[in-house]
């Protein structure tokens, strides 16, 4: 979501990426008919920066902390969990009223996102001797790479 990505880019000093996020927002809300389309990506090749506050905290040198797996939210670390709380305050879906509508929108997004990766879990689980350690190590390495980008 643009507010999360834009804020994270600015806090990390990625001003060009922050500008791209604002431009994407402006183009997609006007030409993309209130964000239902993504002409900024399709016609202007403006990619989403995929930044979040967990990455921002990592950029400032805050370590991962312990690894945990949240029900519904999935894998995380202490740092990324704190970042998720901040992301929640920046997420406009949080402020949709009534609260049931906000939960429904969030649930739809989460189910849609997970449906695109349904076979990944099973593939890693079958290939690993110890699945918990494999998922933990893969997650930590993935987040480390995201912070270093």
Provide the spatial order of strands within the biggest beta sheet: 1-2
Tally of separate helices: 8
The whole-angstrom Rg is 17 Å
Fraction of residues in helix = 55-70%
- CA-CA gap between termini: 19 Å
Give the low-confidence spans.
none
Query: So what's the overall shape?
Result: globular
Mean pLDDT over the residues? 90
The strand count comes to 2
Mind summarizing the main beta sheet? 2 strands, antiparallel
- Secondary structure class reads mainly alpha
Strand-residue fraction?
A: 5-15%
Order of helices and strands: HHHHEEHHHH
How would you describe this structure to a colleague?
The chain is mainly α and about 150 residues long. The chain is about 65% helix and about 5% strand. It is built from eight helices and two strands, in the order ααααββαααα. It has a two-stranded antiparallel sheet with strand order 1-2. Strand 1 and strand 2 (about 75) form a beta hairpin. Helix 1 runs antiparallel to helix 2, helix 4 (about 55-60) packs across helix 5 and helix 4 crosses helix 8 (about 130-149). The longest helix is centred in the C-terminal third of the chain and has 18 residues, at about 130-149. It starts with a helix and ends with a helix. The model has no long low-confidence stretch (mean pLDDT about 90).
């Amino acid at each position: 979501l643009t507010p999360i990505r834009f804020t994270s880019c600015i806090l990390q000093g990625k001003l060009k990426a922050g500008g791209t996020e604002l431009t994407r927002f402006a183009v997609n809300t006007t030409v993309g008919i209130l964000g239902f389309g993504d002409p900024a990506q399709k016609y202007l090749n403006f990619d989403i920066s995929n930044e979040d506050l967990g990455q921002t905290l990592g950029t400032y040198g805050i370590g991962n902390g312990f690894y945990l797996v949240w029900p519904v939210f999935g894998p995380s670390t202490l740092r990324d969990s704190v970042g998720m709380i901040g992301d929640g305050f920046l997420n406009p879906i949080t402020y949709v009223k009534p609260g049931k509508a906000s939960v429904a929108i969030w649930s739809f997004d989460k189910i849609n996102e997970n449906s695109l990766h349904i076979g990944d879990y099973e593939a890693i689980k079958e290939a690993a001797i110890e699945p918990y350690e494999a998922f933990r190590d893969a997650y930590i390495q993935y987040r480390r790479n995201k912070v270093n980008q």
